[in-house]
Every structure is written in structure tokens, then in C-alpha cells.
Amino acid sequence: MWPLDGISTLGIPGFLLLWAASYAVYLALYFGPGSLLLWVNQYFPERQIPAISGRERKARRTAGTEIRQSLKSLIGTSFCLAAGVYAQTTGWTQTPLALSPINVLWTFVAALILHDAWFYFGHRLMHTKPLYRWHKTHHLSVTPTVWNNDSFSVPDALSVQSFFILLPFVLPIPTAALIALRLFDQTKGMIGHSGYEHFAGRLARWPFPLVATVHHDQHHQRFTYNFANQFTWWDRLFGTLDPSYDEQVRILSNPKEKARAID
Fold this sequence. Notes:
Elements lengths: L11 H30 L21 H28 L10 H26 L5 H4 L18 H8 L1 H8 L4 H18 L20 H10 L10 H6 L6 H8 L2 H8 L1
Helix pairs in contact: 1-2, 1-7, 2-5, 2-6, 3-7
């Protein structure tokens, strides 16, 4: 029996229990991998992503400010995952497929692709003048850090994470795969905001679609490029990929060439 079977019979207390459990897991992921990344990165100073010419690579906000804002936004983030899971347990959504390796694999991949589309177009929308006031909080740090990953205004966090409420209504994803997708996205986001490039390689530049850490780092430095989350195809299709992205990935994949480029 799936551990969450029957949680809906508890009604509102059951949902609140899910919400509290989700928040606790997010806090563990935020402080655990966050602290680990900071510890690891200090041993690889050569992997720090260089600032764009003319910009100082320095965070505008203190770690404490970022953490306090993240503690607020994660309340909204955890609400969205809890709501999606709870909706599945009540039978309001599509019936989740049986928990099997093949079902987890194909629904996880399908959800990852759908999530990237949701993130790209929603992210671009949040950069429009009427909505940017809600997204500005996240961009107060031109230089992202691991603590900046969840530093959103609550409305901004809800707009992005509401995907995990809606997904079970359009895809019969097993509950375990839904949770795994959200935890994967959270962990990848921490890495993407770390400011250190550990994953530059051939698969992260043309003609392959994956993104390296520098992809989102460039977005924080220039604001008008690199809106996607998992893949580069939307940015390439709509002309929003930073013109230097592929070249930067190539340089960062070779520490010696990176050293020459900085010199």
C-alpha cells in the first residue's frame, strides 16, 4: 500500500499534515544540499562562473536575507506539492498509473518536458512590466547563490509551483513520480544557483538540449536571456538564448581554456 493512501479520509487535517511534511522536506533539501554545495565549491575555485565583462561578481543581498525570504516562499511551494498530491488521493485527478519502473520513467520524462514549457512561458510572463514587481525579489541578487534558489515573493512562488497542482489533472503520473520530479527540480535549482559550473559538457550545448549551470547564471546577470529551466530548445526557438551561452559552455568545460579566457 502506498503510504499516502487514505490521507484524504482525514479531510482538512490530512491536507495540513501533507503541507507540513512537504515544508519539512523542502527545508531539509534547502539547507542540506545548499550547505553541501557551499562546502564542495570552496575546493573548486577554478569552477566559479566568471562575471560578464563590466559587472562585479558580488551578491547584492546577504545570505541571511535570502534565507529569510526563502523560508516564506517555501510555504507556498510546499502548499502546491501538497495540494497536487492530496488531489490525487481524493480521486479528483486522473487516476495515477500503477507504480512500476516503466510508468515512473515515461511519466517523469513527459512531466519534465511539460514543466519546462510551463516554466519558460510563465517565466517570460513574470518579466513583463505588469508582473515583474512580483518577480523582482528573486532578481535582487545579480549573482545567484544556493540561498537565492527559493528567494521569491510568495505570489511568484505560487505562480511557478502551481504546475504541481495542475499536472495530476492532465497526466496520470504516479504519486511517487510527481514527488520525485519536484525534489529533482528543487535539487537542480540549488545547483543552478550555486555560481559554480560542474556540468559544462557537450550535452549542454548545440545541438544538444540540456542546460549547464551557466545558463541560469547568465539570466541573473543579463535578465533578458535564458528563461527555460531544463532544456534550451524554447530559448533557441524564440531567440532568448544568451548569444554567448554555447561558447561559455565550451570554455567552462575546459578549465585551461577558461583560465586563458579570464586572462
